[in-house]
Amino acid sequence: MEKLVRETTIEIKNAQGLHMRPAMQLVDLASRFDCEIAVNNGQTDADGKSIMQMSMLAATCGTRLYVRAEGPDAERALDALRELVEVQMFGEPPP
Amino acid sequence: MQGSQDSEDEWAASGREGLGRPTRNEFGMEIKKGIAVSPGVSIGKSLMVDSEDYRIPRREIEPSQRVVEIQRIRNAFSGAIKELDALERGQDEATGGRIKDIFAVHLRFLRDRSLRRRITDMVHADSVTAEYAVSTVLRAVASHFETNVKDTYISERAADIYDIERRLLRRLLGTKREDILHLREEVIVVARQLSPTQTAGFNRDYVKGIASDAGGRTSHAAIMARSLGIPAVVALEDLTEVVRGGDQVIIDGNRGIVIVNPDEETLRQYEAYSREFVALEHKLDTIREKPATTRDGVRIRLLGNIEFPDEAPSVLEKGGEGVGLYRTEFLYLNRPTEPIEQEQYEAYAEVARVFKNKPVVIRTFDLGADKYTQAQRQTPEPNPFLGLRSIRFCLQNLTMFKTQLRAILRASVLGQIKIMFPLITSIQELMQAKMIVHDVMEDLDEEKIRYNRDIEIGAMIETPSAALTASTLARDADFFSIGTNDLTQYTLAVDRGNELVSPLYSAADPAVLRLIRMIIQDANKARIDVSVCGETASEPEYVMLLLGMGIRTLSLTPPMIPEIKQVIRSVTIEDCNHLTRTVLAMNSERQISSYLRTAARKILPEAF
To answer: So what's the ipTM on this one?
Structure first.
């Protein structure tokens, strides 16, 4: 299996930040991909598929998350995550 | 019977040294000292009750036991997931979208492998029980949200984590919790702390004693235990860490002692002591039919304080002449929904029928502070005893208040029911509450429903502001009842449930006594009835003082009626007046309480 590694930065843009429901959406989306997804907020590493770890990042609006995906569908995973976080903003309003 | 008083003194005298420090001998017996809050002695097997809000005590296990604990964790998670799945599916997307989301988030947490791994790793590494690991890990996660996260919207999510913790703990401790509701054998309940709600739910036929790590003499759980007649000792500090479920435990609610795994000799001694105590109670019961009259012929009226309708007969059995305080909060405790009018009516009617033409003073809901309604439970206040409680809560929740008043007024035709408002702090509050009674009366008139138009309406005087304005309040009240517990707490600024300051809490403080005297004098001037319904009314050492200050009606916990009657029948009003003059000239609480105790010991030596 091809080992693809992709990295990018995604910014939280909805006003209320990565509270529980957005964290759930993000984890649900990440879990649909085979690749491993690691998220870092500049201080702490979190598993993109763990709601506990993701919610504990407590990323507020404006926080930049460094996302690293490793696996065959890494590219698609990052695109999908960016779409959810930056474009759809979890279906929530910006500040 | 007032072993409690002695234990408190020893406690105060020794600072906090020695309190709650376990004494161990070679038989594995442990003797622990706390504060006696409900008299009596019982011997039985312990049942551990974990309070939902308190930390699960750390309990280490044998390494070989770890696989069992890990399996329990797995079962708890899978059980909780099933439960939540059902709850989530039950929510309609349209109406319950937000709730559905909450359940969905909780489900994600329960399915989160990294969370479960942290918990099982802890069991492996530290050899602790499943419940301790679950509680510790989830509380660490919750406190991360509370302390490290600046954003309030996100940090509030700590509540979700606590909720997940409770759901798992319910699974792990579930059978024990069930036990308390479906008891089949006699037990001694041992807990970190008991809420009034939990205590109210105890089945008296099976719960024979109560012991808790926390609590104070006048905490509501203690009052509840006393009114249920269950011996209880509180403030035992770390008792839950030395007792295991099923251990034999002796509760000495007279001396404030709890003995875990007593040796044979101790057990024999206690069995004998318990028999003697019962014999003293029987002796006091024989004076039931005799009047509560002082030696110089002054008639004192003794009424009972009750918490539940089924306690009413016990007031008569003990020789009470009515109910001076019918607390009604039980209607709100231990249930998921609010009580409807008919249900309340039946609760009031039941008591009115027992007493017929004898007085029954119904106190309107004293909710708030440590007793919450279903709706209130969700929004804790930073300073509940100075917050929206009691009459204030009723005046802001008129639908609830009017429903209660309607039920009381409807029942008023069945006996001599009176209405009493708690925690009045000003004349405006009293007037406002009385206006609402009149509104309800008008409604009943329109509906042609009968009630006693001349029902007496009184005020509980339990704040310094009410005491200081008693002469004004007396113009608009048919009677006063002095609530010495809250009056003491508010006058001395001492939280009566906080063991760190509870030694400062004493109704014998000169400040409290001066307020009590003022209330009585103002009531007498206005020619309205005044009684005492606080704890002091049931404490033999206060009785002479209260009589000397002019009190002729006492309302107290039914089990104490015979003993107080015995005190009354042994004194003259002249003695009481003399004692009161001496006491009111004293300036220190310590001096006053020791003087009162010496005087009472002379009157009723066997009770001390």
So the answer is: 0.93
